[in-house]
Specification:
Layout (H helix, E strand, L loop, with lengths): L8 E3 L24 H10 L4 E6 L1 H4 L5 H17 L6 E5 L17 H10 L7 E4 L2 H4 L1 H5 L2 E4 L7 H10 L4 E3 L3 H15 L9
Parallel strand pairs: 1-2, 1-4, 2-3, 4-5, 5-6
Helix pairs in contact: 1-8
């Protein structure tokens, strides 16, 4: 019998977990943002999987190579690990996202989330979607999950306004990644199905 799908935290990379260096090609320039490792470790302690999802149009634009992307990914994972934190998996969209050639995986598209859900038995409806851009949060509206915007210095004002106008029982805005993960874990727990007496 297959295990029941579980909720996860889908977290953006650039500007949320690491400093946004714009088409980061040099792994030596990877710097975790304050609280990033602690936030992921908090989810680990709660046994809630963390999946990193990142748009990487620099690959299609020829600004970074797949090898450079992988080196940055591995360096990010290593720094998180050094801080006592582990991510279940990382997914990236390498496409440009041109309006005339849309793809399913580029955020806010659901391709990466669906791939992760299928591979790791994750419940998208009970998951949280965290990032510094509106496109990181927007999948919550399509899946029925929870969206949490963590504005950074790179977050466009329009994204903040978009999130502010959507604030509700499912869309939130907080000041830092640790606060976002704490809120997500509390909300996921509150939204879990009640156990029947036979399961208690």
């Amino acid at each position: 019998m297959a295990p029941s799908p579980v909720p996860a935290l889908f977290i953006d990379r650039d500007g949320t977990l690491i400093a946004d260096a714009h088409y980061l090609a040099d792994a030596s320039r990877v710097h975790l943002l304050p609280g990033a490792a602690n936030a992921v470790a908090k989810a680990n302690a709660a046994q809630v999987p963390v999946v990193v999802v990142t748009n990487q149009s620099g690959i299609a634009r020829g600004l970074i190579t797949h090898a450079q992307y992988e080196a940055v990914r591995d360096r990010t994972s290593a720094l998180l690990s050094a801080g006592g934190a582990t991510v279940l998996a990382t997914y990236h969209c390498p496409h440009w996202g041109h309006p005339k050639a849309p793809c399913e995986c580029r955020k806010p598209g659901l391709g990466m989330y669906r791939e992760a859900a299928a591979a790791h038995q994750l419940d998208l409806m009970r998951s949280a979607y965290i990032g510094d851009r509106w496109r990181d949060v927007q999948p919550a509206l399509a899946t029925g999950g929870i969206g949490i915007l963590v504005p950074s210095i790179e977050t466009p004002a329009a994204d903040v306004e978009e999130a502010r106008s959507a604030l509700s029982a499912r869309i939130f805005m907080v000041e830092n990644i640790l606060e976002a993960v704490s809120l997500a874990l509390a909300m996921i727990g509150a939204r879990m199905p009640l156990q029947s007496p036979s399961q208690v």
